Amino acid sequence: MTASKAASAREIERGFLIGIGRAVGGAVVFSLPVLMTMEMWQLGATMDRERLLVLVALLIPLLVGLSHFVGFEETTSWLDDLRDAFVAFAIGFATSAVTLGLFGLIEPMMSFDEILGAIVIETVPASIGAALAQGQFGQQDKEDRQASRDGGYWGELVFMTAGALFLSFSVAPTEEVDLIAAEMRPLHVIALAIVSIAALHVVVYSLQFSGQEAHEPEGAPGWSVFARYTLVGYSIALIVCFVMMWTFGRFDELGFTAMVRLLVVLGFPAAIGAAFARLIV
Amino acid sequence: MAKQSDDKTEGPPPRQVGRLEWVVAALGAALVAGVFGMLLHEALTYEDGPPVIVATVLDVHRTEGGHVVRFTAENRGHTTAAEVTVLGRLTEGDRTLEQAEITLDYIARKSSREAGLVFQRDPASAKLELKATSYRKP
User: Do B31 and A45 touch (CB under 8 A)?
Assistant: First the structure.
């Protein structure tokens, strides 16, 4: 190896370390509200293991998708995305383990299974945060940044999923969601669903006009945006909520209508998260 | 090096991946596999059954606020218990001299929690009994 090659190799490693620092920052930002929520650690300890497994199994493809669309190189192969996803998972896992340890929430009195559960559940938001921050690995100029933000329609949906998850994940484990859902009358539920959709549409529509959605052909009719972004976005928000609440075991003792109510309540932050995905993400 | 600067004029240069990044990625892959393995193992070995909560006294301290009895409540069962109430009683024969109660948020399966009860009387002068009296499914 020549001296210059060695030097550039060192440069690459240095760039990666800086990227790791950034990813840890992203992980902390995304997971702190959840890391400091008691219901969340409790969930990690008590959740059905099969469902936790499902949650992790769904997390990996989401991380791969995020790495793909946030990644600043458009030509990356799926292997690269998979590598980035694993890096994000490792960083998310390490960040939540260290933070929980710092908080004194990992004690020798706890069983391994309880500790692992708590770390794994916190890894979900943490690794998403890491993946998003990781998209800015290495140096990049403005042009790269532009490219990374323009992931096309599918990229948009992946962002929406991440945004929905981001805002609703910290609310989902709390009891307040149940309480709100219980307080609501049918009319409230319908109104909240309409408001969620309207808010989502307003944000999506205004972002389109501010030129952030460069890939969208100029002057696409309003109904098309509504159908392809707003309705699909709201569906994504509800699906995210459904998967989350099911894995958390929150539907277990509920009837169908109570379930729908809960979904709509949680769907509100999820829809807002999906709408602002571009700004958050 | 020359090739890199050429690329720069055309578009973003292909990102170079260092060895360290692969190492971290491998670590991540191992973690994912490990987590999957552990969760799968737990899911497969899961047994349904009631939580088994055993409270054991650790020590008794005489303080200004009374006699503090520190104890651990261990859940030896396979399921987690929430809102576990532990009742401590000082008895003399059939007579209950004093009792104190505490509610623990939750005790995960095969885990334990430390807590304390405060008595005005010295527990050494009577019989101290600790037992879990109720729990809720989380």
Answer: no
Shared domain for A272 and A202, answered yes or no, is yes
B contacts of A73 (beta carbons < 8 Å): 12, 14-15
Give the distance from residue A202's alpha carbon to the nearest chain B alpha carbon, in angstroms.
Answer: 34
The answer to whether the beta carbons of residues A148 and A233 sit under 8 Å apart is: no
Taking CB atoms and an 8 Å limit, are A45 and B111 in contact across chains? yes
Same domain, yes or no: A66 and A117: yes
Q: Which of A96, A127, A149 finishes a domain?
A: A149
Residues A211 and A133 in one domain: no
What residues of chain A, 41 to 70, have a C-beta less than 8 Å from chain B? Answer: 42, 45-46, 48-50, 52-53, 56-57, 60
Q: For position B5, what pLDDT does the model report?
A: 40
DSSP state of B94: T
SS3 B129: strand
Number of domains in chain A: 2
Are the C-beta atoms of A188 and A261 separated by less than 8 Å? no
Identify whether the C-beta of residue B59 lies closer than 8 Å to the C-beta of residue B115: no
Sign of CA dihedral A152, A157, A159, A160: positive
3-state secondary structure string, A73-125? CCCCCHHHHHHHHHHHHHHHHHHHHHHHHHCCCCCCCCCHHHHHHHHHHHHHH
A97 neighbourhood in chain B, CB within 8 Å: none
- Domain span at residue A121 reads 1-149
**Do A177 and A269 reside in the same domain of the chain?**
yes
Q: Looking at the structure, do residues A107 and A221 belong to the same domain, yes or no? A: no
Specify whether A17 is located in the same domain as A112.
Answer: yes
Residues of chain A with pLDDT under 70: 1-3, 71-76, 135-151, 208-220, 278, 280-281
Chain B residues lying within 8 Å of A137, measured CB to CB: 15
B33 touches chain A (CB under 8 A): no
Considering A149, A171, A194, which residue would you say is the last residue of a domain? A149
CB under 8 Å to A2, separation ≥6 — which residues? none
Residue A6 near chain B (CB below 8 Å) = no
ipTM of the complex: 0.77
Looking at the structure, tell me whether residues A140 and A229 fall in a common domain: no
Give A8's strand partners.
none
Q: What is the pLDDT of residue B3?
A: 41
Q: Do the chains contact at A49 and B39, CB–CB below 8 Å?
A: yes
